[in-house]
Design goal:
six-stranded parallel sheet, 19 strands, ten-stranded mixed sheet, Rossmann fold, about 35% helix, 2 domains, about 500 residues
């Protein structure tokens, strides 16, 4: 096995800062790579919200004054370090007070509006990463970037640092988690980021649909690109529905585009050891799962009935996640013999609609609009069925959590959902869930009805549950694939 020096750069890393799945990946993958004896260090912005005492952040003397210049404006960053909890992975927190000493991460929590200078914030952070590496005298083989917030690093390396001996053997990997987030800004922001005028001319590397587009530039300048599932890597080059206008650009880089499925941290998501659930169980003691269902029903004001399937959703309330299908089909859903619990945060319109339905069907529909780790785990453990009707899904994690908890997924066949959930075939008895293809209420209900029809047959239902519980989506498998990706990147000139 090759051994690499890997600088892993992300805008959020759990448990320090988390707004979505990126933070979980940015924690779990470096830990898995460290366990494969890789020399890996993380870099992320130091936000005001990070609790320095709790995570034991320490000053780094040589990083007290990191000079970072863009467009003739020099700012001073400072660096602190800590370990990723329960690991030996070093994290460097880069702090630029005027850019990161704020209440929010990407947006003002009071107005809900994105910070207007987000492009400059993450451009300075990206350049600070490169300057910090030089001050540490640590030359990485790979700089692994994520999303638009770090997509300028490949560009800076191939332009402003092109002749810098320090980075002569450094290559970049850019991971695309969700193409609907691209880092789009007005064109006149480009000079502030040291992006020359010719690169924002119509059709140039950083111009897209009349705007400055940081992700597009990152895709064109990175040595290797990957997405977070094999199916999603195929979808984004084949259809505007998935590619968000980038299909042709990605097709042009198809030789350097790979799909690697995200993993699951089974130290956190495991019904045998889960600290958040009242009753522990495994594939041999599946009957104990009902104890969690009972608690979940009680907490939500439902009458517990072993024979009534409980459907769970843990989701963001956005169009991508198929919440409009659920709302459009709610009357028909509620006519089925089932109970349903939805946990999520997101759009106000979706919240209003769900509240209305929950009032109408309060004995069988409960909704919670918050981020609640304990309830998320209890839904995974207590529900019989987990519904994910996503319009698109780069990877998805909840369907993989559900498999481990013996909670049978009903999903739309797209992206990572298609890579992980195999439709149950009554003829062969094979499959670990129920899938549908068309993005429609009728297709979703048809798949759900197939699950509901099998549910009373405990022997077959347990067979589906156990097939899911046997599946292994551990991070060590994904980490080994990333090592092969790094090898490919290092072969680029």
């Amino acid at each position: 096995m090759n051994h690499f020096k890997i600088c892993y750069v992300a805008s959020e890393v759990a448990p320090f800062v988390k707004t979505g799945g990126l933070a979980d990946v940015a924690y779990a993958l470096p830990v898995a790579l460290k366990e494969l004896e890789q020399d890996i260090r993380l870099m992320m912005p130091k936000y005001r919200t990070i609790n320095e005492r709790k995570f034991v952040l320490r000053d780094v003397i040589r990083l007290r004054e990191v000079k970072v210049s863009l467009d003739d404006l020099t700012r001073t960053a400072s660096g602190k370090t800590a370990f990723l909890p329960n690991s030996k992975v070093h994290v460097y927190f880069l702090f630029i007070p005027e850019l990161f000493d704020r209440k929010g991460i990407y947006a003002d929590p009071e107005s809900g509006q994105d910070y207007p200078d987000n492009a400059e914030r993450f451009a300075y952070f990206s350049k600070a990463v490169l300057e910090t590496l030089k001050l540490l005298y640590w030359q990485p083989d790979i700089i692994h970037c994520h999303e638009w917030q770090t997509a300028l690093i490949p560009f800076y390396l191939k332009t402003y640092y092109q002749t810098d001996e320090f980075f002569q053997n450094t290559r970049t990997v850019l991971t695309l988690h969700n193409l609907s987030y691209q880092g789009r800004f007005p064109l006149d922001v480009a000079p502030k980021l040291d992006i020359p005028q010719e690169l924002v001319a119509p059709g140039a590397a950083f111009e897209f649909q009349g705007e400055l587009n940081l992700l597009k530039g990152g895709i064109l300048y990175a040595d290797v690109i990957n997405t977070v599932s094999e199916r999603y890597a195929e979808e984004i080059v084949s259809s505007p529905e998935y590619g968000f206008g980038f299909e042709t650009i990605l097709k042009g880089r198809k030789r350097d585009l790979y799909g690697i499925l995200n993993g699951v941290d089974y130290s956190v998501w495991n019904p045998e050891t889960d600290k958040y659930i009242p009753v522990k169980y495994d594939a041999k003691t599946l009957e104990k799962k009902a104890g969690n269902k009972k608690v979940l029903c009680e907490q939500n004001g439902f009458a517990y009935d072993e024979a009534v399937p409980l459907v769970g959703m843990v989701t963001r309330l956005i169009e991508q996640k198929g919440i409009d299908l659920v709302l459009d089909g709610m009357d028909k859903l509620m006519r089925r013999n089932l109970q349903m619990i939805i946990l999520g945060t997101g759009g106000a319109e979706y919240r209003k609609s769900l509240e209305k339905w929950a009032r109408k069907y309060k004995k069988k529909l409960a909704v919670h609009f918050k981020f609640d780790e304990r309830l998320a785990h209890l839904i995974e453990a207590g529900a019989d069925i987990f519904l994910m009707p996503s319009r698109f899904e780069p990877c998805g994690l909840n369907q993989m959590y559900s498999l481990r908890y013996g909670t049978v997924p009903v999903v739309r066949e797209t992206g990572g959902l298609a890579d992980t959930i195999k439709d149950f075939d009554p003829e062969t008895g094979k499959g670990n869930g129920f899938t549908f293809i068309d993005y429609s209420v009728s297709a979703m209900l048809e798949a759900l009805d197939r699950a509901l029809a099998v549910f009373p047959d405990k022997k077959i239902w347990q067979k589906i549950q156990k097939a899911g519980m046997r599946a292994d989506f551990s991070w060590s498998t994904s980490a080994k694939k990333y090592l092969k990706l790094y090898e490919k990147a290092l072969k680029k000139k």
